[in-house]
Specification:
Layout lengths: L1 E5 L10 H5 L4 E4 L6 H10 L2 E3 L7 H6 L3 E6 L2 E6 L3 E2 L2 E2 L1 H10 L3 E3 L6 E6 L4 E6 L10 E10 L2 E12 L4
Parallel strand pairs: 1-2, 2-3, 5-8, 8-10
Antiparallel strand pairs: 1-11, 4-5, 6-7, 9-10, 11-12
Length: about 170
């Protein structure tokens, strides 16, 4: 299973995404999608698993859950927009981690790309940074990775270029 992971698009659609999604089986979005048009665009390309984020309004919140917990290719995954990272999890995220015991924890929100193994919870944490044009980040980013037999492998950071409006 090959996954494209992005977050914090904030209503921005980048036409180069389609080429990066091509070898993937699914697109996962860790929230702050921005509007229904972004979700519709992603769904026109590949199957999507997504959560709503703090900037997402009632339309996206009606379409998507706040939390996704699922199993794929033998790996338990939990995804929420506001999550944090090892040693600094948001209280709600920590509760989900302790309850679900995922092997992969995914979040967004910070606009900071991080991939860190959490020894305490024995799980990989991923934040793909921000793929949109709003926020303090300088470079738009996303992640791509594979899942086979319960493990993440062949992960790659994709830089989508300088953040610029217009």
């Amino acid at each position: 299973m090959r996954i494209a992971l992005l977050s914090d698009t904030h209503g921005h659609i980048d036409t180069q995404w389609a080429s990066y999604f091509e070898p993937c089986d699914e697109i996962w979005h860790a929230g702050d999608i921005g509007n229904i048009e972004v979700l519709d665009y992603l769904e026109s390309l590949k199957p999507v698993k997504a959560v709503w984020g703090n900037i997402d309004g009632h339309i996206l919140r009606a379409e998507l859950p706040e939390v996704q917990s699922f199993q794929t290719e033998g790996l338990k995954v939990t995804m929420i927009h506001i999550g944090g990272y090892p040693g600094r999890y948001d209280p709600k995220a920590r509760q989900l981690i302790e309850q679900n015991r995922p092997g992969l924890f995914i979040c967004g929100h910070s606009h900071i790309l991080r991939v860190i193994y959490d020894k305490k919870y024995q799980m990989l944490t991923m934040n793909p940074g921000a793929a949109g044009i709003y926020g303090f980040h300088k470079i738009k980013t996303m992640l791509r990775f594979s899942i086979t037999d319960g493990r993440v492998h062949d992960a790659e950071v994709i830089e989508l270029g300088q953040k610029s409006r217009g």
